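A favour, since you know our structure tokens better than I do. Could you add the entry underneath, on a fresh line?
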Amino acid sequence: MGKYYDEGILPDELRRAFDVYDRISELDVDLGTFENTVVSLAGANIPSAVFHESGLVYLSGMVAGSHPMNDGGNRVKHGQDAGTEIANGHLRRLHWAISCGGEGGDLNDVLYTVKALGMVVSTDVEFGSGPAVVNGFSGRWQSVFGGALSEFAVDGDDPGGYAGVHARTAIGGFTGRFSLEAEIIVAIAPALAEAIIRNRGWIFPLPPVMLDKVVAARD
């Protein structure tokens, strides 16, 4: 597990039993590179992630998909695929947000997942498949961290644990030139959150002065 994982307040029975990066590799999730992902916050009004000293990490919404949703099977599948794409993007952001500063943390230090919000684009007043669409997002997240929707679950039970399970709101009726926007909140050990905030601040991408500091420390 991660350097800080053992500091988390968790019952032994619910501690994760696998390396998150093994599942990420098996699922072929691309985490990108430092150079492409760890960038300056200059000119951006909204950060991708915010760390709180309590250990909560708030990830801003991401969008994917090219069609508004209705209850047709193919259209719902398109939305679910968009959800999977968003989850992959959040994993990439979270990996670098936690690990880029050299404090010793990574995705294995995610203790559990707190809350997800999925906002589904649909102008169909009879649309009722919002939760099914957002399952594409939740399923990928649980596949990485553990949960009943995981691709690794058997009969609704993931032998690796339940750290990916989250409270969730899935709602439709929005307009936009995409299919789904989703955001998520996770918990890491407070000691890791404090180390990150003390070293490089609470926001990701990094303010220019902190980006310079992090890059210099890697050289």
Summary: Helices lie at 20-26, 34-37, 73-99, 130-145, 190-200, 208-218.
